[in-house]
Amino acid sequence: MIEIEHLTKRYGALAAVDDVSLTVERGQIAALVGTSGSGKTTLLRMINRLVEPTSGRVRIDGTDTAALPPHLLRRRIGYAIQGHGLFPHRTVAQNIATVPRLLGWDRARIAARVDELLELFQLPPAEFRDRMPHQLSGGQQQRVGVARALAARPDLLLMDEPFGALDPVIRAQAQTDLRRIQRELGTTLVIVTHDMAEAITLGDRIAVMEQGRLLQYAPPREILTAPATPFVARLIGRDERPFHLLSLTCVADLIQPGEAEGPPLAPGASLRDALSLCLWTGRAALPVEGGGVVTLEALRRAAEGRSP
After folding, report:
1. Does the keyword ATP-binding apply (predicted)?
2. Nearest alpha-carbon partner for 222 in 300, 302, 305
């Protein structure tokens, strides 16, 4: 658990972060979202003391981070940044092994952990462990960067715009992979993004910041249906809100008895995907694998925030 209490960072008269308090429960993903200069990156970096707070405190599992030497604190916390930050002169395996080596792990344990993570990120070890970073695609480099951040099995992972440099297709896959891996490992994750769609896709809770202040901290559905301020509403986007709402729910939650023509949808597909297919094909209902249908009318009600 991360407890942030009245955290403030001032640079002269400017408050980059102004009296922010929030709690991230163990195993959750918290997304910090806001425009450039909102203070989200400064807040993230105060968690691992890359930036020292002016006042307030951070507790991780009850321990005040100010009581720990910064270098020891950071070895307990994974950190991944935009553009991966890999060491260009080290192989993939050597990059992933960085923190375990600092912690004194033996060679066999490090080698096993490197291969375990490469398998987890769907990068076959025999093919990738000895490659240099320049021999990887952008998406592969980013996956190795996240694997390195997870190498020492940290309970907490901080990510600062990790997918900002990726193209939309690779970015969407990277988000899906991250969510899957986070659920498998149970890692607590705090991610900074300027993209509300990414925050909604990944976050169990979203913290919306502006000019150093925390405007709202709530689950994605609450952010979408009850924005706390006009700024939060603008950040969501009026035209995008129905599609964001549909992306939060799976087809399995909207199945009704009935039959329909066409290839069946997977129950785990999002309602956003189902609506897109209905509109593209001109159909009023779609079949679902295992039986039943999802109807266009039910999708419209869900997009309005109403029950089916």
Report:
1. yes
2. 305
Given 239, 254, 282, which residue is the final one in a domain? Answer: 239
Q: Are 18 and 76 in a shared domain? A: yes
Q: Name the domain count of the chain.
A: 2
The answer to whether position 54 is within a domain reads yes
Structure confidence at residue 2 (pLDDT): 94
Count other C-beta atoms under 10 Å from residue 132's C-beta. Answer: 15
Q: Are residues 206 and 80 in the same domain?
A: yes
Statement to judge: residues 16 and 152 lie in one domain: yes
Q: Say whether pLDDT at 74 is over 90.
A: no
Domain boundary among 188, 218, 239: 239
**pLDDT tens, 265-285?**
998 888 988 998 988 989 899
Tokens representing 40 are: 């989200």
